[in-house]
Structure formats: C-alpha cells, structure tokens
Amino acid sequence: MSQTNHRTVPRKPGRPKEGEDLRYVILDEAELAFAEHGFAGTRVRDIAMLAGVNQALIRYYFGSKQELFDEVLRRRGSDISGARHVQLDRLLALPDPPSVSQIIRAYLQPQWDMKQSGPNGAAFVRLQARLHAEPEAHALRLRSEVYDASVKRYIQVLSDALPEIPRETISMRMAFLVGTYLFMLNDLGRLNDLTDGQIGDIAQDEMLGQLVRFLAAGLAAPVS
Amino acid sequence: MSQTNHRTVPRKPGRPKEGEDLRYVILDEAELAFAEHGFAGTRVRDIAMLAGVNQALIRYYFGSKQELFDEVLRRRGSDISGARHVQLDRLLALPDPPSVSQIIRAYLQPQWDMKQSGPNGAAFVRLQARLHAEPEAHALRLRSEVYDASVKRYIQVLSDALPEIPRETISMRMAFLVGTYLFMLNDLGRLNDLTDGQIGDIAQDEMLGQLVRFLAAGLAAPVS
DNA sequence: GTTGTAATTATACAAAATTATAATTTATTC
DNA sequence: GAATAAATTATAATTTTGTATAATTACAAC
Q1: Do B202 and A172 touch (CB under 8 A)?
Q2: CB of A85 lies under 7 Å from some atom of strand D
Q3: What is the DSSP string of A172-224?
Q4: Domain span holding position A31
Q5: Residues 168-197, chain B: which have Cβ within 8 Å of A?
Q6: Alpha-carbon span A129 to A215, nearest angstrom
Q7: In-domain check, residue B69
Q8: Å from B22 (CA) to C29 (C1')?
Q9: ipTM more than 0.90?
Q10: For A177-215, what is each residue's pLDDT tens digit?
Q11: Are residues B51 and B26 both part of a single domain?
Q12: B83 and B57, same structural domain?
C-alpha cells in the first residue's frame, strides 16, 4: 500500500534511450525513500522497484547502499551551501550593513525554496532533519562536509551585526537556529496536529516571516 | 568495538534472584541502543547481548521489537509529561503571575534534568530527537500520545502571559521552541565541532540559561 | 557486418535478523 | 517433597536484505 510501483512494464537491457537518465531517476526515488524511512529503514529493493529498475543497476551506478545515500545528500547539499554563499554575497554588496533579520533570511531562503520546489525538495529537507538526529560518525562527517563552511561564515557576519554580543554566544545561538528551522521545515505539515489546527490558515509564505522574526529576536536577545 | 558485552557468563534459567530485574535491564539497554542507531538500525540481537540476556527473553517480555521500542518511549515519556505538569502547577501557585522565562524554564527543566541524570537519561533525550525526525505514522501517534497534552497546557499559560500576541502565533512559536530544545539537547555534545570549539568552556548549567533567554526573546517578539 | 562496450535485467548467494518452539531450571505452594 | 508455574536458555525455521555474477540487449565504431 505504501510503495507505489512507478513502472510495471520492464525495460529492456542495452543502451538507454536518449534523455532517459536512470541514474537520476534512482537518486530521486532514493531521496524520497530515505527521507521517509531513514537509511537503515530503507531497502535497496524498494528504491529499485520505485524507480522501475533492477536492483543490480543501483549497485552498478553507486556501488553500495551507503554510497547511494551519500550521493543523495551531496547532490543537493552543495546546492544549498552554494546558494547560501550567494545570498550572503548579495547582502554584503548592499550599501547599508545587513540587519540580523536579513542575514537570517538569507540563510533560510535556500532551504525554504528547496522545500517549496516540489516533493523531492521537501523530501530532502526532511532527510537533513533526520541526518541531524543521527549521532553516527558517518552522518556527522557528512554533515560537516556539506554544511560547516557556510555556517561559519554566517557566524562571522552575525558577529559584525551584533557587536555587543560575545562571539561564543552567537555561535551557540546559531546552533539553536539550525535546530529550529530544521525541525520546523520538517514538521511544518504536521504542525497543525500538534496545536489543534490553530495555525492551519497561515499561509506558507507568512510562516517563513514568522520564523525569521522569532529567530532574529532570539539571536539579538541581550546577554544576561 | 562499539558494542560492549555487558555480561559474559550466561545466566541460568528459572526464577530470577530477588532484585535482579531483567525487564528493566533490557529496557535500559534498548534505550541506549535505539538512541544510538534508531529503530531500524538496532538489532534485537544486540540489545539481548548488551543486556546479557537471551534473545527470546525479549520476545517473552515485550512481544516484538516494535513493542519494545514503544515501551522504552512510554516509560520515561510519561515521567517527563508528569514533571512538566508539576512544574507548571508550582509556578501557578505563586502569588505573582509567571514570566515567559519562568514558563519556558518550567517546560525545559524536566528534560534538562533527565539529560543530566546519567547516560540513560541522555540517551532518551537523543531518542526523542530521533522520533521527531521520523515521519512514519506510528512515530507520530506515539509522539502525540506522550507529549501533546502538556504542550497544549503550556500554550494556554503562555497565551495568558502574552496577551498581545495572537494565540496562533504562540502555537507556532511553541512548535519552534520544541524544535530548538530537542535539537540542542541532542546536539549539545557535538556543538563544539560545529562552532570551532568556541563554546567549549561554557558550563552545562549556563547553557540552559542561554537557551531560555533565546527562546523567551523569540516567543515574546512583537508581531509584525 | 563483426566486434566491443555500456547499460540493464534475471537469477543466485550468503549473511543477518526477526520470529518461533522446545527444553531447562528455579522458586513457590500445598 | 511433588507439582505447578514462571523465567530463562538453546536451538531452529523463516524471512529479509545486501551483495554478487552471469546473461542479454542495443548502440557505435571500425
């Protein structure tokens, strides 16, 4: 019931028809599956079935389940990281120094856009939240590899915008921020259940604004 | 290397020696294992081995892996929920109406205490973070079952303390709050890596204060 | 057109893991 | 002290699952 069989008629072996990129079909389906069931909870078999592809093809392209997972993460992770840098560059190019809200929004916008971009983008966001809950060494390495650089740059810029707040405090609050938005992006659809349907009518776009306001206030809060 | 064999000499069958509560030993080890590897990533075998117990005994006590998992969650979940109610009652019994910071602290304190209480408490906190990242229907139900009631009560009290902020906004911000603290409690140990070791010297206790300040500012932020 | 190579499937293997059953020991009760 | 029931182990059966190999097809190049 859960797994939709996307392709019933089997493909014939041989050279692929121009444009049919099975490698990407696999990555897309893996993204959806990993987001829903996690790494250990996802079966390579299922990904293959969803992609309408033989199991062995996954091995052919990616080597192992773990490598497939890593590839799923890297593919979009580097996009996000890049977009964050671009957003920050754009902000710093303006004549006035950026406000805290602007910096935060610059950081969140890429994730937000990805989430809005369709089912796969949304799945990837959920996958990140999962990854952040995994204490395994491998997950940690992967997270660092993909995200650390941009976080550090944002901490620097925030420090400049909030000179009265010690840098360690900013670092910590930045960590809080990451937790908040990841959770929020992940849980947004289910937020209604948690709160008795009280926020069902708030538009998606307004929600980002609300989040930014919340985080900006927290980040700029006076120290003791 | 990862799995420590807690008991090498096998137990003999029969009635247990007074005081040796294998049921709890199993729950404790399951808690640690699930927190580290997640539900799907944990093998019943390993739990049995860590608890120094035969696999079949787990089945005997809990029926299935899933039921064991649920039991691990319920055991402490109800403690947390209860403690939150107690904290709130205590606060409301004071002559003055509670401040936002006080309310937040009341909400966080039980989790914080649990985390400090030892390896198993800390593991449980991590486990909750994991659960919040799982979109599966079963995980959702479990979360609702264990936590929803207390959250709703806190939303009410916060609404009273912040009459100028609409209730839907409070609800949403409460959801942000949950995300922030879960992530923080989960990631605290690794926070240093993320921020280049800049917050290594902050005492654990001070960290809770910092978190409360951050969240209180966010919750009380003026609306648009 | 034959040959070679890349992409894909069909099928098989082997390890791992959950579930199941039967046997064994100990305490308790009458 | 015999009987009964509970707790525990040993062992087995079955299902799942990741991995591996061999066979097949199609395209391209010479």
Answers
A1: yes
A2: no
A3: HHHHHHHHHHHHHHHHGGGHHHHTTTTTTTS-HHHHHHHHHHHHHHHHHPPP-
A4: 1-63
A5: 168-169, 171-176, 178-184, 186-187, 190-191, 193-196
A6: 18
A7: no
A8: 24
A9: no
A10: 988 888 887 776 655 555 555 555 556 778 889 999 999
A11: yes
A12: no
